[in-house]
Amino acid sequence: MKVPATARENRCSSSRSVSSAQQWCCAPAYWLHHSLVVSVHYFTVDVEEYFHVSAFESIVSPNDWDRYPSRVSVGVERLLELLARHDARGTFFVLGWLANRRPEIVRAIAAAGHEIASHGWSHQRVTQLCRSRFRTDIRRAKQTLEDVAGAPVLGYRAPSFSITHANDWALDVLVEEGYRYDSSLFPITRSGYGYAGGGTDVHWINLPSGRLLEAPPATLGVGNFRVPAAGGAYFRLFPFAVVRAAFRDYDRRAQRGTFYLHPWELDAHQPRLSVPWWTRIRHYGGITRADTRLQKLLGEFRFAPISSSPELQ
Ligand SMILES: [Zn+2]
User: Fold this and answer.
1) Among the residues of the chain, which ranges form H helices?
2) Is residue 17 in some structural domain?
3) I need a labelling partner for 17 at 20 to 30 A (CA). Which of 87, 160, 254, 261 fits?
4) How close is the Cα of 204 to the center of ligand 1, in Å?
5) pLDDT digits (tens, 9 = 90+) for 178-198
6) Rounded to an integer, what is the distance from CA 33 to the centroid of its chain?
7) Are 148 and 273 in contact (CB under 8 A)?
8) 170 CA to middle of ligand 1, Å?
9) Number of domains in the chain
10) What domain range includes position 148?
11) Which of 156, 157, 162, 160 has the alpha carbon at shortest distance from 179?
12) What sign does the CA torsion over 177, 90, 147, 158 have?
């Protein structure tokens, strides 16, 4: 199925000076010092344990998840601290399995003023699921997260950005299950995931079941290529200048970029699993500098939750 995506004009309709998260939370951009337009970008976190990552699926069975020591609170506490220090708010896509076992973490995130959204239940990639199993997975996660957080869950992010052109029927299922936005379509070409040719800015997707707002992970256009610059391993392994250039470009165009990170990326003391060298680089590479880089990013750019998007008001 081909999904027609229509880009939507989302420049700020009014210029104003603001000083707090509450004031700019619904504005896609604002004027700084009456001269420079600065966008309010989206800060997102995929809340999962280090042993949930898809790169470990060949050595960590979901049946054994309960046997691994939980470390998620280390990264979450640090994220909440840094976001508060920089007066930033974000969207936390929480794994349903984790919310069921650690509801106090979900409540702490919500109590700090952040949005709770869904990372599905089982962390199975959408490419591995049929339509009905995907529906069960996202429905269960949404219900659990809403029960725990006491607020509607509007958004979804697929494990490993695994909604591709081959399975974008999943977008229809999201609308049918009451989700209003998605942040899974990474507009790059990569083995295993990526939505090459997809919109690079926040946009509406018109579907048979309705319309869905898409907040794609940030990329940087370099010639004819889209360089992934949204966070995760790209944030830890690429020069910081790549991420900075991407978000400055969003600022320049008065568009909103979407950044992402995982709690385990701020936990240098997580248990080390025995994995092939390429997985080791992808998961552990640059983990000791992620904290410093994150502080730099939060100091240079403004961030809010995706639910604050004017399109969703
Ligand atoms: Zn994940």
Assistant:
1) 21-24, 72-85, 96-101, 103-111, 131-149, 169-176, 232-237, 240-252, 277-284, 290-300
2) no
3) 261
4) 24
5) 999 999 999 998 877 899 999
6) 30
7) no
8) 17
9) 1
10) 40-312
11) 156
12) positive
190 in a domain, yes or no?
Answer: yes
pLDDT at 29: 54
pTM over 0.85: yes
295 phi, psi to nearest 5 deg? -60, -40
Q: Give one word for 120, left, alpha or beta, with left for phi > 0 and alpha for psi -120 to 50.
A: left
C-alpha 87/C-alpha 106 separation (Å) is 20
DSSP assignment, residue 207? E
As a whole number of angstroms, the distance between CA 46 and CA 160 comes to: 10
Q: Which residue type is seen at 188?
A: I
Q: What is the CATH number of the domain that holds 99?
A: 3.20.20.370
- Residue 105 Cα distances to 10, 70, 75, 110, 290, angstroms: 33, 12, 11, 9, 22
Q: Is 231 inside any structural domain?
A: yes
Q: How far is the CA of 102 from the centre of ligand 1 (A)?
A: 16
Say how many Å lie between the CA of residue 300 and the centre of ligand 1.
26
The tens digit of pLDDT for each residue in 22-42 reads 334 444 555 444 445 579 999
158 located within any domain: yes
